[in-house]
Every structure is written in structure tokens, then in C-alpha cells.
Inverse folding.
């Protein structure tokens, strides 16, 4: 279906939100909501953007629609760069690119009848003829499965599913060629979700619409998308055709996401991959691969012979130290949790052996670290921590527990036609640890 | 109605529209036309009267049946009051009439509060008295021979149902004129607050950033401004006519309401329908006037209604202290005049006092009931 | 299971008196929860699943809510006849609650440790220091890393998933025998949801608790339930072991729910909408959306729960004799004709 130039090309799109402080609006950092994403959407194609909340998928969509101005990058729609549009051109663009919103309750002005809400786009674009407007609205209401008489009713008189149908009608009434649907069914009951998804499908076929579907529900995405992009912390970690991506995911994050879908198959119970931790602060994203802080397949150095799980724990430990936790005060509390906070008298240094054992317990390393060298580093680090020397501990971990995942940004690897991923495991040079990753996946 | 529109565009559907044909045409409904004509007409007449009219002679004199002489010679206040009533008609009465379902809903909520219903009836009566009373019952005039007549229920006559003052003015007529003054102060002031507070509040909330910062800092300064001394100063400089006092009251009391409006509008601004409107290409003015203002109108109306009693009291206090308009019989001035005669002619201060008290109380009840009825959380 | 169930709900009816009439949110619901098992109540929004759970410990606002009929036996005692104090002490010490939105359940101005301590101190006679120790233990129990140092953090310093863990810790503070969790993972991402479900499973094994888990997500049900109660418009449509419900669903509604899950092959929506709960239809509540409905489904009352083989019962006329099966779809009209003819 995709011949010729794509309808939408997104190139290195970035959207940062500056965090400011004080009267002078001094910038103290920025939230990198979208941090350089590339993808294309062809005429008549459905492209899915998935990821956890806060990964930047909604911001990406809003930026593509110019509801937010991008920080950098370009978005070509039908060959034109929409980031350079002026007001008049932007208004014309709005006729071609429309949006369906997530929350059917808040996406309609409660003081406007359905007719007024649906006529709004027509009035804004200069259609003065009221009877023609009413006619178009009634016709469209019937086509999305409601009744022409509904035109005079108010949003609160409709159920969530019906409101989402009206939302679809509002998005269609300007006859756009692209629809952005931001979690269109996540606020609906399952029994209604299917209706809306089927309706979306129907209209796509009828009008050759391109759709960008944003969802955290991989079931929904798998059902209606032709291609899928997986986002993590503002970056696309994998893009590919839906079936290929679901049956043969290349990026560990994609694998974790797919495996986290609750399945109705009882045999699958507790077969889900567990991601440890939660999404890091997007204002201070991790170095290298942004997923390395949670990745179950983070790459160990060549000279260690470690279980993958142990290496994960050691990385968690390293991360914690790098965040300047595990200070001597905190270690003291961990060693003697019964002591009263106010009367605490923290000594200069703590007994090293006890610290090591507490830390082994905390990071699930009681059964021992497989590799002798790695174990020595762990003990040495605990020693520095016990002496309150956080800096030396950080240096030691930095030089000894090195991983390419933390050192370098993973390059984009072509995985075949229309399929790419950004993971060190997939790039040349790094030996994929397929055997071990299997054992982790089934946990 | 729907059948003939349908047949006209029988086979046109949304995908047939060629949008290049449509650009910028705005359609005028009869209602919009009527609004522009009436409001524009009043404003124009005001400007003409102000520029060319005489202060002494009435605009025209009509005496249809010989009993009711109509000879209006409106001053600035009268023009502004006429404009206010016209605005209230188009933006309160007409919408209520056009949305009978909404009206019924609000009425159902409103009538739960019995005190407020009584207040509404009372205020309606006072309003009618204020608008038409002076033309029917005439204005108070000095008549020394008739001084200190007691009211009818204390042995007086029906010629002066509420008795007379020390200079023989009819207290009933003074009460009517006072009602007119109070209504002018309350309604004009309230309208000014509504307009200023919603314009500033919604604009600050919608644009945010620098605009918000500048507008809200200005509001902060206004809030700390001692209005009372400003009025004293202006009265001292220019003499305190009612028009000036109302303007000052309106221009200095909108700030607290605008803060309320802004915080409400900030919440509304986060709703997805604002994004939806942006996304179809609506401009800033459209979004503010069509979406933000209507959706914060409950807050505005409630807050402004609750300001009315304090405006009326403010005017009464000024008049009582002698800073009011010396040409206008306001309730405050009547109370002030009657206060020295409380021993021998209690009705002079008491009658206007009772009306002032009841009016302020009624507006407070009304405001409370409106807040309950309009509260979107109850919908 | 022959032992006495920990919780036994019999013919519970919770109604709400509103301006528009009486909302029959829960209209005759019965089910049991045994010790150490997880029962999932599943249904669409408006099915009455949350009201059912809130009726157990009378968390519903009364008025306008009212438990008009039925009994809730907890450990043999009828909660509906208890005094308010009795219910309150039960709520804190025997039955814990976890709500959907962890944001709203935590007070932002107190540390999480303080909030857990409060929960402990209000029901147990321990010293402050002991309470603090218990709080740390609880945080460790629910899988918060470095619990001793995190206990003095404020709620905003925790991520959404971690907050939900804290809420669970508070619910566990009084060592309850039963946990009622109302959509505890709906507000969370799938990856975090998986962690929280693990936690529930782990807690149950460790503490031998009974869990009532309310959800609309059949995927979650499959993941953690031992038994399932399928609700629709205030009535129980089907109940049974999780295996029966998923592998051998009997009620047309259950079948339809399973077929409309995105990601499954068919994606069949359920036509129509939930019936009115103020003026429920005659007969089976599901009849006007049910492809198998015959004339008899449209009259009388909701059919009783017919027992099926194994741990399984269904409220559908087609199973009247205890073993039947749904008719073929094309036979549905013929059945009407046959019954009509017989009359």
C-alpha cells in the first residue's frame, strides 16, 4: 500500500519543556518529553505509538499537530514542513490533520449542544450557511451510528462510547486525510472499545485515512495498527510492522511490554517479564541507552562470567550509589532500623562486613556473586561505603562495572525491511546473549 | 423545518465540501443584529446627548393622558443604566428564554431555596419600582408647609403614605428614588465587574506566561489600593456626582472577582475541549469568548451577585457621610438626614433604612441561591 | 470446599435514593469468599461491582445509599446488623481496602511512615517506636527498596506504582484477614501493573489472606483469580472457578466479554448498552443485548443461579436443568416458536 512519498514524515522531532525558577524565568533544566524521533506514516496506514505513561507519546502527537511547537526537527505533511507554517497555513493544515481525544467527558464543551460542537469546525473555517452546516452534521451523526435528532442534545446525555462516536464525527467533519487518536478507547469499557475500534477501521477504509494511534494497550495496537513504534523516555526504541514486532520483538523493552500484557490464557500465569523499578526522571535521563537502568538484558563486561540476573542486581546497586544514596547515614539506618531517628549517633565508619551483608540482602545477592572478580569489586565498594567514602565508591564502580549500555547511545540497527531497533544487543560488535536472555524472559 | 433544509442539501455530505470556497464569511443571525442595533443605538444616543444635548431641557415631552408626563432628561448615569438594562436583557433574559430546558433546570435548583425565591420577588418589585416608579409617582419636592407628616399607619394620610421629611419631601417618593439609585449602583457596578473581571481573568488564564504575570500583578496592586480614599479624593476634586461614584466603585472592585475567574479559567483551560477547539483551527478570541467565558460564567455571575450588596452599602455609606451626590436622594442620604429627627420623626430614617436592609439581605440570599443552583459540581 | 466461608454475601441489595428515582446499584447479589482465596468481581462500569465491595464494610454514603435487604456474614456474624462502631473496628482490623487511585488515598502533607503508623496505632496497642518498626517491615513486605530510609519520605517522592505499594502497606497495617482491592491497577502502566499483581499474589501466599479483587480487565482476572464473579447491572450473571469461567464460560454475557477483548482474534463488540438501573427490564438483565435470548428471557425475574458441574453456577434460563448448553444461534427463533406452539 505504501508507494511513493509517505503522507507524514517525522524527522528528528524534539520537544523539550524548560523548567524555570524565579522571577527571571531562569532555566534550571528541561524535560525532554520527545527527544529525537523519526517515523513515517503512509496514506491509508495506521501507525501505532506505544509506551508507558510519560514516555512522550502524547506530546509527540500534539507536536505533530502543532498544538505544541517543536523544539527541533521537522514534520513533513504531504511534502510541506508543518513546523514552518504561519497562522494561515496552519489553519489550512488543521483541515487535513484532526485529532480524537482520550477523555470523552472532557473533550466536549458541556455548555454546547452536540450540534454546536460539531458545527464549530465548520464555522471556524468560514462556512456561514447554517442549514448546510446542520445538514452535514446530521448526516455525519447518522454515519457514526447516532441519530440526526441527537444534534440538539447535550454531551452529558450520552454514554462514553456514544461521546467517542461524536468525537470521531468532529474529527471527520472537515474531511481530513490524517487522524491522530490519543488513547481513543482507554476510558471506555471493553465491550464498547471494540465498537469504536471497528468504527475507526471502517472509516479508514472508506476514506483512505492515515491514522496515528496512541495507546498504552498493546492489545488495541496489535488489533488495528499496520506498523508500530515503541517509545521509551522520548525516544523510539523499535519500529516495525505490527505482526513482526509482536512475534519477533528485537528490543528488550518491547519484549517486556509485550510480555506484560495480561493474557486471558490461564497457562500463561506468571509468565510475564517483570521490569524492575519505574521510569526515570525525564528531566535527567540516564546516560547511554535510556533503558539500561531497568533492562533485564543489560550487557555485562566481557571479563565477567555472571548470571544475567546477578548483573542486573549489580547494576541496580551501581545506579543507587551513583544517585548518591547509600550514604553512611542511610546505611546506619539500614543496619539498625530499630534505633530512634532523633537519638541517632552516626559514627565515622561502620563495620564493613555487616554493611556488605546488608547490601547483599538488599540487592538479592545472598547466594553469592558468580564471578570472583566482580565479587571483590562489590566488597571493596561496600568497604568504601562503610567508610563513608561515596566518591571513591562511585569511581570504583564506574571503572569496574562498565557496560556499553551505559557508556554509549545505542545505534539504530536495521532489522529487515521496515523494522529497526536501537539496542546494543542488536548492533554489530556486541555479542547477543541469547541463551541467557531466554532464562530471564521466563523468570 | 428539518425536512426543507435536508432537501436543499439532499446529497451533500462532508466529503463533498470544497473548503477553498469558504473563507471568512460570517453569518449574522437576527438576534445578533438586534443586539448590535439596540446596544449600538443606546450608545450612539448617549454620545449625541452628551455632545449636543442640553442639561436643562428634557429630550422630549410626552403627556399622553394628562396624568403621566414623560419628560426624560437623562444624565450620564441614566444612559448607562439604560445600557445596563439592555445588556442584562440580551445576555440574561434572552438566553434563558432560548434555552427553556436549561432554564427549567436552574429554576428547579433555585426554587429549593425558599428565602431566595422571596428575595427574587422582592428584588423584582424593587427593580420595577426603580425603573418606572419615578415616572409614575413623581420626584420629591420641597414643601415646607407639609413638614413632619407621619406615615399612614401612624396617623398620617394617604397623600404621604410613608410621611414627609423636615422640608416636606415625601418619604415614599424618596424611597423610590433611593431604590433607583441603589439599583443603578448595584447593577451598573455589577455589570462593570462582570465585564472587567471576565476579560482580565480569562485572558490571563488563557495566555499565561508574561500576560498572566502583568495582569495579575496589576490586580495585586489594585487590591491593595485604598478605594475609600480614592473616592474621597475624587469627590474633593470634582464633586461627587453619582456617575463618578459608580465608575470608581466599578473600576476598583472587580479585582477580587477577576482572581476567582482566573483560577476557575485555569482549570477549564486544561479541559480537552479547549484543545479540541484549538485543533480545529479556532483563534484565541473565539476560544476565550465561546468556551472559556461561558464555562466560567457560573463563577462570574455568582461572584458578581454577591458583590452587589456591598456596592449598595458602599454607596449608602458615602451618602450617609455626606460624600454622595447632593442632587440625588439615595437611601444613605435620607438616613443621614433623618438621623437627627429620630426622636420626633422616626420614619424619616427608618423607612429608607428598612428598604436598604431588605434589599441588601435579598441580594445576599439571591447570591447564595445562585451559587448553589449554578454550581457545576451539582449538575 | 466444605469449611465455612470467611465472607458470605446473601441476596445483598444496595440502593441509592436519588432525585431521578431509586438506583438499584446492587440488586440481589450472593457469593462466598473462602479463606486464602482470591475472588475477582468483574463487570463493566455501572455493573455494581464497586458498590458491592463497598457495601461489605458499609463504605457507601448512607444516605443516599441504603442496604435494603440481604446479609453479609463475616466469620459467621452478620455485618449488616452490627453497630457503626462494630463495623468500623472490623474495617480497620479485619478487612483492608485498597482503592483505584493511590494519589487520593495518601495525604500529601504527611510522610508515608507517619500514615502507616497512624493506621497501626489506631487499631493496635503498640508504642510509637514499635509502630515505626512495623511500618518499615510493612514497606519491606510490599517491596519498597531500602524501606528504612524511605519511611520518612513524602508521598510525592514515590512513583505511581510505589504509591500503590504504600497504600497496600497501609491496608495491611492491621494484619487483616481480608483485603478488598477496587481496581488497584487500573491507573497504572502495564509494566507496573504486573509488579503489583505479583505483590498481591505474594502477599496472599505469605499471609494467607482472602482477597476480593474488583476489575474490569479479564486479563487481570486470568492472572490472579481463584474464583470469579461476573456482574451485570447489579446482578450476578455467572460465578465459578477461574478455569471454568475462562475455559468453559456458560453465560452469554461472559462469552461476549471474552470475545470483545482487543488483541483476540474476533473483536466482537457487545451491541447495545447497559440497561437502566433505576427501572431495570423484566426477566434477565442482559436479554436485550443477548443473541441467545428467547421470549422466556424477557419476562419474570432474573433467573436464579443454576448449579453446573464443578465449582460453577450461572444465571441463565438455558441451563435450567443443571447441565444444558446454549442453543445454536439459528435455533433461538425456533425455540420461541416451539414454546409458543406448546402454549
Amino acid at each position: 500500500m505504501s508507494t511513493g512519498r509517505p503522507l507524514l514524515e517525522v524527522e528528528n522531532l524534539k520537544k523539550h519543556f524548560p523548567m524555570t525558577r524565579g522571577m527571571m524565568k531562569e532555566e534550571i533544566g528541561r524535560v525532554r518529553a520527545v527527544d529525537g524521533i523519526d517515523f513515517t506514516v503512509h496514506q491509508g496506514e495506521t501507525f501505532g505509538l506505544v509506551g508507558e505513561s510519560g514516555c512522550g507519546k502524547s506530546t509527540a502527537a500534539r507536536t505533530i499537530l502543532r498544538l505544541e511547537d517543536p523544539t527541533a526537527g521537522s514534520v513533513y505533511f504531504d511534502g510541506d514542513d508543518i513546523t514552518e507554517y504561519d497562522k494561515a497555513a496552519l489553519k489550512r493544515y488543521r483541515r487535513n490533520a484532526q485529532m480524537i481525544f482520550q477523555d470523552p467527558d472532557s473533550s466536549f464543551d458541556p455548555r454546547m449542544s452536540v450540534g454546536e460542537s460539531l458545527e464549530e469546525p465548520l464555522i471556524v473555517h468560514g462556512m456561514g450557511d447554517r442549514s448546510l452546516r446542520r445538514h452535514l452534521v446530521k448526516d455525519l451523526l447518522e454515519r457514526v451510528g447516532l441519530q440526526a435528532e441527537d444534534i440538539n442534545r447535550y454531551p452529558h446525555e450520552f454514554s462514553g462510547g456514544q461521546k467517542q462516536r461524536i468525537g470521531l464525527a468532529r474529527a471527520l467533519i472537515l474531511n481530513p486525510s490524517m487522524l491522530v487518536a490519543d488513547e481513543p478507547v482507554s476510558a471506555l469499557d471493553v465491550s464498547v472499545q471494540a465498537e469504536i475500534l471497528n468504527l475507526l477501521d471502517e472509516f479508514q477504509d472508506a476514506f483512505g485515512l492515515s491514522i496515528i494511534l496512541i495507546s498504552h494497550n498493546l492489545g488495541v495496537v496489535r488489533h488495528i495498527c499496520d506498523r508500530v513504534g515503541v517509545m521509551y523516555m522520548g525516544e523510539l526504541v523499535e519500529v516495525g510492522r505490527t505482526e513482526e514486532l509482536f512475534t519477533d520483538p528485537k528490543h528488550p523493552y518491547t519484549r517486556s511490554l509485550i510480555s506484560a500484557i495480561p493474557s486471558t490464557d490461564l497457562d500463561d500465569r506468571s509468565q510475564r517479564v517483570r521490569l524492575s523499578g519505574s521510569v526515570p526522571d525525564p528531566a535527567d535521563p540516564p546516560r547511554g541507552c535510556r533503558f539500561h537502568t531497568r533492562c533485564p538484558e543489560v550487557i555485562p563486561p566481557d571479563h565477567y562470567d555472571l548470571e544475567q540476573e546477578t548483573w542486573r542486581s549489580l547494576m541496580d546497586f551501581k545506579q543507587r550509589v551513583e544517585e548518591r544514596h547509600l550514604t553512611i547515614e542511610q546505611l546506619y539506618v539500614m543496619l539498625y532500623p530499630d534505633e530512634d531517628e532523633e537519638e541517632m549517633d552516626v559514627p565515622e565508619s561502620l563495620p564493613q562486613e555487616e554493611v556488605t551483608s546488608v547490601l547483599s540482602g538488599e540487592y538479592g545477592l545472598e547466594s553469592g556473586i558468580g564471578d570472583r572478580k566482580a565479587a571483590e569489586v562489590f566488597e571493596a565498594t561496600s568497604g568504601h561505603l562503610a567508610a563513608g567514602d561515596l566518591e571513591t565508591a562511585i569511581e570504583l564502580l564506574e571503572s569496574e562495572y562498565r557496560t556499553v549500555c551505559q557508556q554509549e547511545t545505542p545505534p539504530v540497527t536495521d532489522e529487515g525491511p521496515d523494522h529497526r531497533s536501537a539496542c546494543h544487543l542488536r548492533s554489530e560488535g556486541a555479542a547477543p546473549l541469547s541463551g541467557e536472555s531466554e532464562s530471564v524472559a521466563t523468570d | 423545518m428539518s425536512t426543507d433544509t435536508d432537501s436543499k442539501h439532499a446529497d451533500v455530505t462532508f466529503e463533498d465540501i470544497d473548503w477553498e470556497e469558504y473563507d471568512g464569511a460570517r453569518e449574522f443571525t437576527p438576534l445578533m443584529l438586534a443586539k448590535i442595533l439596540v446596544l449600538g443605538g443606546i450608545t450612539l444616543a448617549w454620545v449625541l446627548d452628551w455632545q449636543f444635548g442640553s442639561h436643562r431641557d428634557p429630550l422630549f415631552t410626552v403627556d399622553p393622558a394628562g396624568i403621566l408626563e414623560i419628560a426624560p432628561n437623562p444624565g450620564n448615569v441614566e444612559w448607562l443604566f439604560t445600557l445596563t438594562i439592555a445588556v442584562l436583557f440580551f445576555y440574561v433574559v434572552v438566553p434563558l428564554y432560548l434555552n427553556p430546558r436549561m432554564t427549567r433546570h436552574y429554576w428547579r435548583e433555585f426554587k429549593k431555596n425558599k428565602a431566595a425565591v422571596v428575595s427574587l420577588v422582592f428584588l423584582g418589585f424593587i427593580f420595577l419600582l426603580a425603573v418606572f416608579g419615578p415616572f409614575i409617582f413623581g420626584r420629591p419636592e420641597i414643601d415646607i408647609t407639609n413638614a413632619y407628616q407621619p406615615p399612614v399607619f401612624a396617623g398620617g394620610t394617604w397623600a404621604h403614605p410613608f410621611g414627609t421629611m423636615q422640608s416636606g419631601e415625601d418619604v415614599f417618593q424618596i424611597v423610590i428614588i433611593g431604590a433607583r439609585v441603589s439599583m443603578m449602583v448595584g447593577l451598573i457596578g455589577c455589570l462593570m465587574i462582570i465585564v472587567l473581571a471576565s476579560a482580565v481573568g480569562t485572558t490571563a488564564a488563557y495566555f499565561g506566561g508574561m500576560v498572566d504575570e502583568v495582569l495579575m500583578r496589576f490586580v495585586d496592586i489594585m487590591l491593595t489600593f485604598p478605594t475609600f480614599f480614592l473616592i474621597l479624593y475624587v469627590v474633593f476634586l470634582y464633586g461627587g456626582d453619582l456617575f463618578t461614584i459608580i465608575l470608581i466603585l466599578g473600576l476598583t472592585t472587580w479585582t477580587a472577582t477577576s482572581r476567582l475567574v482566573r483560577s476557575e479559567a485555569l482549570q477549564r483551560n486544561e479541559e480537552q475541549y479547549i484543545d479540541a477547539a484549538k485543533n480545529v483551527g479556532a483563534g484565541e478570541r473565539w476560544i476565550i469568548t465561546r468556551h472559556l467565558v461561558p464555562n466560567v460564567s457560573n463563577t462570574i455571575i455568582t461572584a458578581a451577585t454577591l458583590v452587589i450588596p456591598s456596592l449598595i452599602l458602599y454607596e449608602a455609606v458615602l451618602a450617609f457621610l455626606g460624600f454622595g451626590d447632593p442632587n440625588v436622594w439615595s437611601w444613605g442620604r435620607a438616613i443621614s438626614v433623618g438621623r437627627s429627627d429620630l426622636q420626633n420623626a422616626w420614619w424619616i430614617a427608618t423607612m429608607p433604612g428598612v428598604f436598604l436592609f431588605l434589599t441588601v439581605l435579598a441580594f445576599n440570599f439571591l447570591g447564595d441561591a445562585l451559587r448553589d443552583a449554578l454550581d457545576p459540581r451539582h449538575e | 470446599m466444605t469449611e465455612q466461608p470467611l465472607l458470605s454475601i446473601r441476596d445483598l441489595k444496595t440502593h441509592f435514593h436519588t432525585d431521578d428515582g431509586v438506583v438499584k446499584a446492587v440488586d440481589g447479589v450472593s457469593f462466598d469468599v473462602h479463606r486464602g482465596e482470591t475472588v475477582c468481581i468483574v463487570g463493566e462500569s455501572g455493573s455494581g461491582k464497586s458498590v458491592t465491595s463497598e457495601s461489605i464494610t458499609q463504605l457507601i454514603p448512607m444516605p443516599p445509599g441504603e442496604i435494603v435487604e440481604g446479609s453479609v456474614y463475616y466469620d459467621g456474624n452478620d455485618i449488616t446488623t452490627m453497630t457503626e462502631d462494630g463495623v468500623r473496628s472490623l474495617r480497620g482490623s479485619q478487612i483492608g481496602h485498597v482503592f483505584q487511585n493511590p494519589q487520593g488515598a495518601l495525604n500529601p502533607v504527611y510522610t508515608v511512615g507517619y500514615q502507616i503508623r497512624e493506621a497501626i496505632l489506631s487499631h493496635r496497642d503498640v508504642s510509637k517506636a514499635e509502630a515505626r518498626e512495623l511500618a518499615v517491615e510493612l514497606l519491606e513486605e510490599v517491596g519498597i527498596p531500602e524501606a528504612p530510609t524511605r519511611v520518612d519520605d513524602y508521598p510525592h517522592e514515590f512513583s505511581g506504582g510505589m504509591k500503590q505499594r504504600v497504600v497496600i502497606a497501609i491496608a495491611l497495617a492491621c494484619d487483616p484477614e481480608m483485603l478488598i482491592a477496587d481496581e488497584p491497577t487500573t491507573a497504572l502502566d502495564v509494566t507496573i501493573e504486573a509488579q503489583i499483581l505479583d505483590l498481591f499474589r505474594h502477599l496472599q501466599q505469605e499471609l494467607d489472606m482472602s482477597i476480593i479483587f474488583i476489575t474490569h480487565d479479564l486479563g487481570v482476572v486470568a492472572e490472579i483469580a481463584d474464583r470469579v464473579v461476573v456482574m451485570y447491572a447489579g446482578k450476578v450473571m455467572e460465578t465459578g472457578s477461574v478455569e471454568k469461567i475462562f475455559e468453559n464460560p456458560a453465560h452469554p454475557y461472559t462469552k461476549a466479554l471474552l470475545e470483545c477483548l482487543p488483541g483476540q482474534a474476533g473483536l466482537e463488540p457487545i451491541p447495545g448498552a447497559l440497561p437502566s438501573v433505576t427501572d431495570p427490564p423484566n426477566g434477565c438483565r442482559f436479554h436485550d443485548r443477548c443473541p441467545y435470548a428467547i421470549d422466556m428471557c424477557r419476562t419474570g425475574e432474573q433467573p436464579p443461579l443454576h448449579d453446573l458441574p464443578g465449582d460453577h453456577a450461572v444465571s441463565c434460563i438455558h441451563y435450567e436443568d443443571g447441565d444444558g448448553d446454549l442453543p445454536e444461534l439459528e435455533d433461538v427463533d425456533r425455540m420461541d416458536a416451539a414454546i409458543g406452539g406448546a402454549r
About this structure: Chain C has a mean pLDDT of 83.
